[in-house]
Amino acid sequence: MSSPVLPLTWHLARRSGRRGWQGQLLAAAAATVSSLVLLVLFAAWHGAGARADATAWRTPQPDRHGTAVQALTTTFVRGEPVTVVSLAQLPGRKPTPAPPGVAAFPKPGQVYLSPALAELAHRLPALQLADRFPKTASYETIGAAGLAAPDELVAVVGRSASDPAVSPAAGDAPLDSGLIARVVISGYSGTTPSPFTVYDQSGMLLGAGLLVVPVLMLATASGRLGAARREQRLAALRLAGATPRQILAMTGAETAAVGAAGAAAGALAYRLLLPALAHLPFGIGTWHTGDLWVGGLGVLAVVASVSLLTALSAVSTLRQVARSPLGVAQQSNPRRTRMIRLVLFAAAVLYILVSVDGGGLKTSQQAALVMLFYGAFWIIGPWVVDRLGRLMARFARRPATLLAARRLSDDPRSAWRTVSGLVMAGFVAGFLSVAHLDFGGHDYSGQVAVSVPAAEHRPAAAREAAERARALLTEAGVTATVHARTDDKDDDSLLWGRAGVTVRLPSGPAQVDTALTALTALNPASPPYTQKYFTAADDLGSATRRELGLAVLTAGFVVATASAGLTAAANVLDRRRVYGLLRLAGTPMKVLDRARVRETVVPLVVLAGGMTASGVYGAVKLNEAGDTTVDSSGALQLTVCVLIGAAAMFAAIAASRPLLRAVTDNPAQQPD
Questions:
Q1: What is the 3-state secondary structure (H, E, C) of 243-279?
Q2: What pLDDT digit, counting tens, does each position of 235-259 carry?
Q3: Are 307 and 263 in contact (CB under 8 A)?
Q4: What SS3 class is residue 369?
Q5: Does the N terminus or the C terminus of the chain have fewer Cβ atoms within 10 A?
Q6: pLDDT at 30
Q7: What is the rounded distance in angstroms from the CA atom of residue 71 to the CA atom of residue 524?
């Protein structure tokens, strides 16, 4: 005999009425947002790894029996890094394969440019960029396989084996920063990414770690939306003779189907949004669309996970229905929090402080402490909301505040889940957006340096290089002050004790680019450089951290907005009997609406706002310790993000106001 569970589940779902269908749609919408955000987080992490892999070919493994020489240099135009890879086939060796993204191994004098660099070379005067490369009738194009981002600036130049640009002196770098290297190769299998992409994936992992728990909580919340109505219905079935196993099976089947439908819709939205997501800048630039595609198995895994979480969450809420259906029907069990949460939070924080005091922690240990710190807030969060509700009730002067306080105390976990995604995200965003991690140093802005070959480290060679530099700059129309430098260790210049030439420019970036182009011929083995050579990776890292903080906060607001809006609408449906009774007792609609808003706004301001302010305060103190100023652009972006996010949350909560009006209209005639 077949089980009646599934037919009965389908029958009750179809006969649940308009309010029941509205609850199902809200649950599906929560699953949709959860699936979409999880896929985006997965895609960002996956894409960051693909970026790093796409740059590893530029630093391949050395092979003393190799077939070609590869020299990596980095120059700058308009302050942006340009990666230049010079390749020379060694005579008498077998042909070397072409690098990724390049159609064929470049012949001497042949130049391949990335699309963004080719466009820039055509737009800028030749004296500022194009003359740094060999003269050629036309440039070949580097494909996406050799680029970390569509707008990355990369050049591949073919050289002869005797060209100074690939000589042993080409690996003589003023600083071991990974921007200059020379190696004999036979292929391009490398494991060291570019300094501009090496930390992207770890940063994305941090951002995903801050957001994945709130997103998973939203997925589990989708199983709880409409729980009050479901519990009442199932309690009646339980009292009518249904077994606990049947109750659980009905709930699991219903919510799993709703969660799967919502998660599939989120996966479809992710697929449609991929081109738009690829245009979002991060670090070195925008993204290749293919790098953000997690694959069919990844999509199926996320959809299945969200569906399973939804079902498990709904089933876990029915323990009271199975044990005490009469108590559920009477709504006699408010959810309180216990003081043990505060004790556990204090113990976790104390353990973290003791662990970091000695230093010397491994990366895995640091990650574990970060997760413990995050978990500590999840322990204390509901307790703080509960106490906040009690404090509000004690000092409430208006009915709306008193109603909101009662709701916070009755169900603090629900209020915490709504704002939890913004608590740690706000702290991280506040810190990374305002912190200006620059602990001083020399200022060499407007200075260009060129070293002389190591074999010619003598005052005469430096003076000869200075005379030639003056001639090259005069020919290019650049007015500058040129100094010959020896290898004096106390020499205060960009050469840092190396013999060479320094050029002081009084003009702006166009003159700097022209000087860099003109001085390229001075020492082909060691291109001229500016202060950007030493600070580019750190500058990009600081900008990436700021972008990461704002991205985490933005995603946190998306999750919180969806959670606040969907929870507010579901609560209206679940509490319509209470709202109806309050309306019959004479409570104005305005008071009920204000209570709903304050129920979300108070924890948002106190918890998320307080943690964001704490992050800003910590960044200000760090800036003071490093004698630096606040990052004003980051602070402005943080302010705009917070204002827009808060407005979105208010709009999401206000969107359920018509539903509140509908369920309280003529309450005496409502079937409840």
A1: CHHHHHHHHHHHHHHHHHHHHHHHHHHHHHHHHHHHC
A2: 555 555 566 666 666 667 777 888 8
A3: yes
A4: helix
A5: N
A6: 83
A7: 11
DSSP 529: B
Residue 82's beta-bridge partner residues? 75
pLDDT digits (tens, 9 = 90+) for 500-521: 888 888 767 888 899 899 888 8
pTM for this prediction: 0.79
Residue at token pair 């709703």: 258
Distance CA 544, CA 267 (A): 27
Question: What confidence tens digit (pLDDT) does each residue in 380-427 have?
Answer: 888 888 888 888 888 888 888 888 888 888 888 878 877 777 777 777
Helix axes 412-434, 200-224, angle to 10 degrees: 160
Cβ pair 540, 104 in contact under 8 A: no
Mean pLDDT on 191-212: 82
Element (H, E) at 55: helix 17-55
Q: How many helices (H) and strands (E) does the chain have?
A: 21, 9
Instruction: Assign 7 a pLDDT band (cuts: 50, 70, 90).
Output: low
Contact yes or no for 657/573 (Cβ under 8 A): no
- DSSP letters of 161-188? TT-GGGSGGGG--SS-SSS-EEEEESS-
CA distance 577 to 553: 36
Checking 480-483 for CB contacts under 8 A at 24+ apart, the result is 480/448, 480/504, 480/505, 480/506, 480/511, 480/515
**Of the candidates 117, 167, 166, the residue with the CA atom closest to the CA atom of residue 146:** 117
Which amino acid appears at position 567 of this protein?
A: T
CA 521, 525, 529, 532 torsion-angle sign = positive
Residue closest to 196 by CA, chosen among 157, 152, 156: 152
Q: Which two tokens stand for residue 168?
A: 């042993």
Checking DSSP bridges between strand 500-504 and strand 447-451, what pairing results, if any? Answer: antiparallel
Instruction: Tell me the pLDDT tens digit for each residue of 551-576.
Output: 888 888 888 888 778 777 777 776 77
Q: What percent of the chain has pLDDT above 70?
A: 81
